[in-house]
Specification:
By secondary structure, the chain is of the alpha+beta class. The protein has one domain. It contains 4 helices and 8 strands. Strands 6-7-5-4-1-2-3-8 form an 8-stranded mixed sheet, sandwiched between helices. Strand 1 and strand 2 form a beta hairpin. The longest helix has 17 residues. It is globular, with a radius of gyration of 17 Å. It starts with 9 loop residues before the first strand and ends with a strand.
């Protein structure tokens, strides 16, 4: 079945790259359950003005990551997914605004779970619709107005776990962004968007 019509067959990965010279730029990679790329999108670097830095204060980075970069990437995506994984918590602000379930992924330092096992808290979301739990060696944090129960998230993500390291796709995105920047060889411009769709 086509991944575009079967969101559960595809998983989105969102990350951000930040440099003092180029500013912020984001990347989005949609993968099938086997870990193969279905779609890649990225933004050109976003550099806030001095006035924005003053006016937004500590809220500037979350605003740029979620409201500017994240929105631009997801709205242009052709492959629709029901779950988006990220290694940057600022992207979780998109959860109340989008239909996808947003999951922050990190490696659980305390997890010594056997291959194939699932552990963690199978509990209802906390107040404000958030939960943190462990699946195998992964620490997952979900934040949404209507987040699924942890066991539902674990069941949905299980097909990926036998095929890839959940942090590895973020390395792919960062490497692709570095390659694109090198090829561009130009200074940051206003927010733009480029895409590559894999078969």
């Amino acid at each position: 079945m086509d991944s575009a019509t079967n969101p559960k067959a595809a998983f989105g990965f969102l990350t951000i790259v930040e440099t003092s010279e180029a500013g912020l730029f984001g990347g989005y990679l949609a993968l099938c359950e086997a870990g193969r790329p279905l779609e890649f999108r990225c933004t050109t670097p976003v550099v806030p003005s001095r006035a924005q830095a003053i006016l937004y204060g500590p809220t500037l980075r979350p605003y740029l990551v979620a409201d500017v970069i994240g929105v631009a990437l997801l709205e242009k995506a052709k492959i629709k997914t029901s779950m988006v994984l990220t290694d940057d918590r600022d992207y979780l602000q998109l959860a109340p605004l989008r239909s996808e379930t947003f999951i922050h992924v990190s490696r659980s330092e305390s997890s010594k779970v056997e291959q194939g096992a699932t552990t963690g808290h199978d509990e209802a979301p906390h107040a404000h619709g958030e939960c943190t739990f462990t699946v195998r060696q992964w620490r997952l944090h979900a934040e949404s107005v209507a987040v699924p129960r942890p066991n539902e998230i674990a069941a949905q993500i299980e097909p990926l776990l036998g095929n890839l390291d959940l942090l590895e796709p973020f390395d792919r995105i960062r490497s692709a962004l570095a390659e694109i920047q090198q090829l561009a060889g130009q200074h940051p411009e206003d927010l733009g968007e480029t895409s590559h769709v894999a078969a």
